[in-house]
Amino acid sequence: MKIERIEAIPVSLPLAKPVRMAGSEVATAQNVVVRIETDSGLTGWGECASSPTFSGETQGSLLAAIDGFLAPAILGEDPMRREALHAAMDRRLSGNHGAKAAVDIALFDLAAKALHAPVYELLGGRARDAARVFWHLGNADPDADAREAAHRARDGFNFFKLKVGTTTVDRDIEAALKVREAVGPECDLSADANQAWGVAEAIRFARGAEKASLCFFEQPVPADDLQGMAAVARLGVVPILADEGIFTAHDVLAHAREGAAHIVSVKLLKAGGFTGALRAVHAAETVRLPLHLTGKVAESSIATAALVHLALAVRDLQYGVGITNHYLREDLVAEPIRAVGCQVHAPEGPGLGIAVDEDRLRRFRTR
Question: How many degrees, rounded to 5, is the angle at CA 308 between CA 302 and CA 312?
Fold first, then answer.
């Protein structure tokens, strides 16, 4: 089996409602879908969301990286040789983890289809039948966050992540306390600052929101400030989760060495797809840092399926998985992935288990 064609497809996907976070408000997802076709007739699909303030990749740079560098590195090759192909992409282009993730996911989809197996079998096999899902809260005022949380709790969600760092520390403390009151003590609640604060502000929030009983406080200070992360972690008020600072296995080990995190978040777009994500996961297991897996707001069911397969395969998933396709007004697949209550299952069938709706893909593509 040989790779005959690689196409990078830019899409613009509207969200059902905007999601606010520190530094940005996302109303439309500017993603890139990758389609890899082989001489055997099999097709593999991958996807990555653009994230200029997070991964440094725009939709334009994703397209340029895939079309100009990554596709030529693997065209004509056997897609079953995934490690060798990932090494070839690394030799051709440094960094650009999101672009590599989209290609890597498509290669795993192809390989699993060729073996008539779900992708999670290529990741070590299924460790669980379903993964626990959280719901993002990112509204303009604390009362709106509380109302949305109460509504989703009635739908069966019992795990929430509150976006903070968008206005003032006092407003965010108020939001955390109001959401806790709205969902009661039985639900898990976390907060994500997306690097918004310095150490003093982060500590003030952690102490002020202590009665909200947060299960973790995500990336309170900039990703490159491991000493700042360690200072907040030493406070001991709430477990600290590292996200924007975790791209590779090396980053996991650096955070462990500096005491800069109690938990690490692995994203496929940060790790360069399954190949890098497995290395980061195994590094976290080695240093006994619990895992949190999540996607970027907002991916379609293509990237979401990939994330769910990873979530079912990892050994320890103490802090759940954040799928993001349910924030979209419309998906790119025939049967979108949906959490049932607070649990999500992998789609049935070989590969990722999804069927891309070509009509929707044409409607939302921008080039």
Answer: 150
Could you tell me if 219 and 245 are in contact, meaning their C-beta atoms sit under 8 angstroms apart?
yes
| Structure confidence by residue, pLDDT tens digits, 131-158 | 999 998 988 889 999 999 999 999 899 9
Q: Is the peptide bond before 298 cis (omega within 30 degrees of 0)?
A: yes
pLDDT at 297 over 90: no
Q: Coil, strand, or helix at residue 189?
A: strand
340 vs 14: CA distance, rounded Å: 23
In sequence order, which residues have a C-beta less than 8 Å from that of residue 241 and are 6 or more positions away?
A: 190, 216, 217, 218, 219, 261, 262, 263, 264, 265, 292, 319
Cα-based angle 219, 220, 221 (whole degrees, multiple of 5): 95
List active site positions: 163, 267
**Side-chain half-sphere of 282: how many Cα atoms within 13 Å?**
8
Instruction: Say which DSSP state 356 is in.
Output: B
